Amino acid sequence: MSVRKLKPITPAQRFRIVNNFDKVESVKPEKTLTVGKNKSGGRNHSGKMTMRYIGGGHKQTYRIIDYKRDRDGIATVESIQYDPNRTAFIALISYEDGEKRYVIAQNGLKKGQTIEAGDSVAPEVGNTMKLKNIPLGTVISCIELRPGQGALMARSAGSYAQLVAREGKYVTIKLPSGESRMILTECKATIGVVSNSDHQLEVSGKAGRSRWKGRRPRTRAMVMNPVDHPMGGGEGRATGGIPRSRNGMPAKGYKTRSKKKASNKYIVERRKK
Fold first, then answer.
1. Does residue 240 carry a pLDDT above 70?
2. Which of 3, 81, 91, 227 would you call most buried, defined as having the most Cβ atoms within 10 angstroms of its Cβ?
3. Euclidean distance between CA atoms 92 and 106, whole angstroms
4. Is the sign of the CA dihedral 123, 128, 130, 136 positive or negative?
5. % of the chain residues with pLDDT over 70
6. Chain Cα centroid distance, residue 82
7. In a 10 Å sphere around its CB, with 0-12 CB exposed, 13-18 middle and 19+ buried, how is residue 42 labelled?
8. Residue 133 half-sphere exposure toward CB, CA atoms < 13 A
9. pLDDT by residue (tens digit) across 65-106?
10. pLDDT at 29
11. Angle at 38 between CA 35 and CA 39, to 5 degrees
12. Which residues of 176-188 are buried (b: 16+ CB within 10 A; e: fewer)?
């Protein structure tokens, strides 16, 4: 994927950097794999606003993604499509009996290509297999944390992990953050890097684009009054105390992870500071 800078024929386009979408097809989503998506506007069942800065936004259709890849066999990629619900692109695949599914698309996946899932498949881009069968050093994504649960890790645009070691019933994977952690060998993962890796280079160019995504303007804590936020008040740009949340929880370096968390024992090396 590539990005391009627009000519500033309007003020909003002066800093706009867009995705070329050269690998994405402009087709309607598969109707059997979509459901309606309701927006709450940040209100609960009684109409009270419980989450601020949420509201509006363009109407969206949710695409049902197959994160489990629990069907073995060969499937053909029918198209690579845009999904408004996630940063990565998705691929519509069809099996020999006509069944269709949406999966997260990996970099290099093309229309007409065949992918498969199972125990004895080749470690090629788009194929899903158990971690015990993947060669060491392979770049993987869409990783399960528990067997049969479905992919939870490395699902967003451009994300990946690397399989670095295998010992007993666990493998060790290294994440881009620098963290190394153990996962059961029976868990599945997909070969390759998640598509749309240039997503981080995009620049929206204007505030209205955030409104289209359903995000309302966010007020900075420093410009609030002391009654509204611990960081509010003061003369001019002066603010009192250390950066913290609305409830007083310190930010910027304060560790919030529980020391008793069950998954701590699976983390071999912490992420880099």
1. no
2. 91
3. 12
4. positive
5. 99
6. 14
7. middle
8. 18
9. 999 999 999 999 999 999 999 999 999 999 999 999 999 999
10. 95
11. 145
12. eeeebbbbbbebb
Overall CATH class of domain 3-37+57-200: mainly beta
What is the C-alpha separation between 176 and 68, in angstroms, rounded? 23
The residues, ordered by sequence, that sit 6+ positions from 10 with a Cβ below 8 Å of its Cβ are none
Q: Residue 188: pLDDT above 80?
A: yes
Nearest to 162 by CA among 185, 143, 148: 143
Average pLDDT estimate for 178-186: 95
- Encoded amino acid at 82, one letter: Y
* Cα–Cα distance for residue pair 54/218, rounded to 1 Å: 9
Would the pLDDT of 1 be above 70? Answer: no
Q: In 3-state terms, the chain is what percent helix, strand and coil (to 5)?
A: 10, 30, 60
Q: What are the pLDDT digits (tens) for 213-230? A: 999 999 999 899 999 999
Contact 33, 90 (CB under 8 A): no
